[in-house]
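Revision sheet: structure tokens.
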Amino acid sequence: MTDDFDRVRDHYRATGLTERLKTALAVFGPEEQQLKPEQLATLDQFHTRGLAATAELAKLAGIAAGMSVLDVGSGVGGPARFLAATHGCEVTGIDLSEPFVEAAQYLTARTGQGGAVSFKVGSALALPLDDGGFDVVLLQHVAMNIADRPLLYREIRRVLKPGGKFATFDVVLNGGDPHYPVPWAKTPAESFLLSAAATCEAIEAAGFRTLVQRDDTAEAKTWFAALRASGPPPSLNLGVVMGPGFADFAANLGRNLMEGRLGILTAVFEAVPTKS
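Predicted:
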């Protein structure tokens, strides 16, 4: 397990990230100028279809004002800030990468949301949180890095209230071997993909029942096609966070989707009360 964690940390090391963000965000004005979460959307949504996918997942999960939400694998905090701003909920983000958490805290200070959004360094397999504290847990483009899926889903179940919702938006294995590198892995040794059916089965076995299960591969293909047609990316893009090679990684994800090697699963589950 330690070796897996080390590989993931190395992949998302992002040395000097906060300073790169400060430089990139100078296009919006001086450091003291407060930003809106949507201004950061092109560089802080680490998943296919970006902000639109986060908004759809929140709607499916029924996120509402006053709820306590956990974002597992929160990256630099884009979904957490968006959810707090648009739904009036309190959001906690957990990520294994210390540079990502530091950057998330910096960006959240820039949007003035420190009272509603917080971040911690931690593993998805040992969440540094008490039992039963959250109404909703989100997991977006994270599980592909995790070999021990049963433990991942049990941990998510542990921190949810009975009847709480677990909403996932993830890449799944569809058929054939993927082309590497991809955004989450440079080689197959760092990638732990499951099919949509195997993913849902593992989640249900951890104490959930399925509310929504949707194949969003077609929408992802359309999104990638639109990106290619739109020309060069904006100056504020995920390459600022992940480095100049990220565009090639993302192109491979699009290729894998187009060729039917990978798919996109959107699903929402309800935490089943445990038997005493």
